[in-house]
Amino acid sequence: MLFLLSANFTFSQEAIEDSLISRMCEDLPTYKKLDKREIGPTIFDKHLTKYLETKKLSKRDSISISIDQRLQRKCPDYIKILDKIHKPKRGNWTYLKNIPKSRITDKQIDEFKNTQSFYYIKKSGSEVPVKIENNQWIDLLPNNTYSKLDLEWLTNTSFQLKFIESNNLHHKGSSRKGDIYKYDIIERKKNYYLLVLTTPQNNRIVSFKFYPKLK
Fold this sequence. Notes:
The chain is of the alpha+beta class. Helices cover about 40% and strands about 30% of the residues. It has helices at about 1-25, 35-50, 60-75, 75-85, 105-115, 170-175, and strands at about 95, 115-120, 125-135, 135-140, 145-155, 160-165, 180-190, 195-200, 205-210. The longest helix has 26 residues, at about 1-25. The model is unreliable at about 1-10 (pLDDT under 50).
């Protein structure tokens, strides 16, 4: 009985927050005349303040981060605003309209599959180590946190990741168990693989550099 009550409470909270996120996204165009850096705080202040007041003080930061991450997944207009404010550094990320044709060879794919340690560079410029083994992809994140996903090959040059769990506040807030992310391996450059990530939740296509760690 306690489990059922807990499950119903969790579902109810998620439903309330999903409805809140939908209203925030619908309301975004009314603020298009504001400076882009003011739109996010304004929309959060209008829609989120009263909701957070119903929550414990210790929970408010994590709820705010979770809603922000989920708004990024579900609201293309919000993503466009953030992309203009936070432009990727060092040319590691590029937004695309279509997935390019793969130019990678079978030998290079075999090398990729036989490598366990990689890293990518976030838009902020920080490096994120990645460990791939036993058909799992694990992001090794700051403060001994992680994000764990199942890896399933779809074709010889593409795979999907299915979110399992994370104890990192941002990653846990942005993904739910079972969320799918599709990757295409486009080519092998001198010191990195060029991958394309497709996020079904917001129809986003982005290429990024994925670096093998040299021993």
